[in-house]
Amino acid sequence: MADSAPRRRSRASAGLPPITAEQIIDAAVELTGERGLDGWSIRQIATKLDVWPGVVAHHVGDREAVVMGITDRVISRIPVPGEEQPWREWFRAMLVDGRAVLREFPGVARRLCVVGPNVPSALPTIDTGIRVLMKAGFGDQAPTVYRYLFNSAFTLVAVEDDRGSFPTARADMGRAMAAYAEDESRPGLAAVGTSARGRGTDPEALAAEETDFFRFTVERSLDGAEAMLAGR
Questions:
Q1: pLDDT by residue (tens digit) across 114-170?
Q2: Which residues contact 108 (CB under 8 A, 6 or more apart)?
Q3: Residues 6+ apart with CB under 8 A from 166
Q4: Where are the alpha helices (DSSP H) in the chain?
Q5: pLDDT top residue among 133 and 208
Q6: Which among 218, 226, 221, 215 has a CA at the least distance from the CA of 136?
Q7: φ, ψ at 202 (rounded to 5°)
Q8: 69 and 92 part of one domain
């Protein structure tokens, strides 16, 4: 449907059921998956539902309220591991699964890092995650470690989202760095160039590298937290 003004007839006069807040968030989540969290307007949500923009405001509120609803819905899709798992396994699963969900809705990861997970569906995750850390021995540092692990991982997801605005940049940089692979006078650049040459510019290879780098970051963050635990 085009982003034009919705029709003037009421839903009741057209024999249609009234719009609900849940349907509005459904439409907003779908638009976020297509365009990113910053890529839609209230009018576009209204057009998608064939209602006036005022209907969105009446049932949900302003744009910030809709964003909160989207964030809540997206976080609710991230599976929460059982509390019985060891702390490293719990966070590894949570962060890897979280990335998979957040990458479907560009902009939500950045929202979480900048504003925080201040929505109802995040509360069980926060409570369980911090209890897992407390059980592991982090004590009163558990909230700080929790924040560190999530921010380290999801800031990287936010960067991945932003790269979508520069679709050829990664491949272009890879080609530029690969030119240094034979530069014996600069072994550091040569090492980077060799790595870039091996990776190539295939989109699937670049995506796989991003996944590997994300997992690397998660593991090193967990290592850092474990070193902190060992020093307590």
A1: 999 999 999 999 999 999 999 999 999 999 999 999 999 999 999 999 988 888 887
A2: 32, 37, 70, 71, 74, 102
A3: none
A4: 21-35, 42-49, 53-59, 63-76, 87-102, 108-115, 123-136, 142-163, 169-178, 187-199, 203-230
A5: 133
A6: 226
A7: -65, 130
A8: no
> Which of 122, 126, 164 lies closest to 147, judged by CA?
126
Domain containing 137: what range? 81-165+202-230
pTM higher than the cut 0.70? yes
What amino acid is encoded at 60 in this protein? V
Q: Residue holding tokens 């998608």?
A: 48
CATH code for the domain of 52 = 1.10.10.60
Both structure tokens of 202: 């295939």
What is the DSSP secondary-structure string of 168-218? THHHHHHHHHHTTTT-TT-HHHHHHHHHHHHH-S-HHHHHHHHHHHHHHHH
* Alpha carbon distance 198, 186 (integer Å): 18
The CATH number covering residue 135 comes to 1.10.357
Rounded CA separation 160/58 (Å): 35
